[in-house]
Design goal:
It is a single chain. This protein is mainly alpha-helical. The chain is built from 5 helices and 2 strands. It has a two-stranded antiparallel ribbon with strand order 1-2. A hairpin with a 7-residue loop joins strand 1 and strand 2. Helix 3 crosses helix 5. The longest helix is centred in the C-terminal third of the chain and has 21 residues. It starts with a helix and ends with a helix.
Length: 109
């Protein structure tokens, strides 16, 4: 509206489409997924931090296509800013967490 007033009516049109949704909606029916992720993190010396996020990831898209994908950290911080960084030691820990997670999921079948 501001741009159309400033530069002339009809200059800008806005069409909004849903692109990502909150992962919590797709993961909520599968609480065991969050539980085994928590266990894998704790077994590798970490303290899980669980927060709802909107999405914006491949996991969000996959989750709403029927493959629930909790979003896991990778050892990075300050994402999408000029201060973004990744800590190699934290990434190494996440590799161990992912291996533990694979073992736990394999044991379910």
């Amino acid at each position: 509206a501001f741009i159309n007033v400033k530069y002339g009516e009809g200059r800008v049109q806005l069409e909004m489409k849903e692109s990502y949704r909150n992962l919590a909606d797709a993961v909520a029916p599968y609480p065991f997924l969050v539980q085994i992720v928590e266990e894998a993190i704790q077994e590798n010396g970490g303290q899980p931090v669980i927060r709802p996020i909107r999405g914006g990831t491949d996991g969000s898209k996959l989750s709403f296509m029927g493959l629930p994908c909790p979003n896991l950290g990778v050892g990075a911080a300050n994402l999408h800013s000029r201060y973004e960084y990744a800590c190699v030691e934290q990434m190494d820990v996440m590799v161990q967490v992912l291996l533990a997670l694979c073992q736990k999921i394999a044991a379910l079948s």
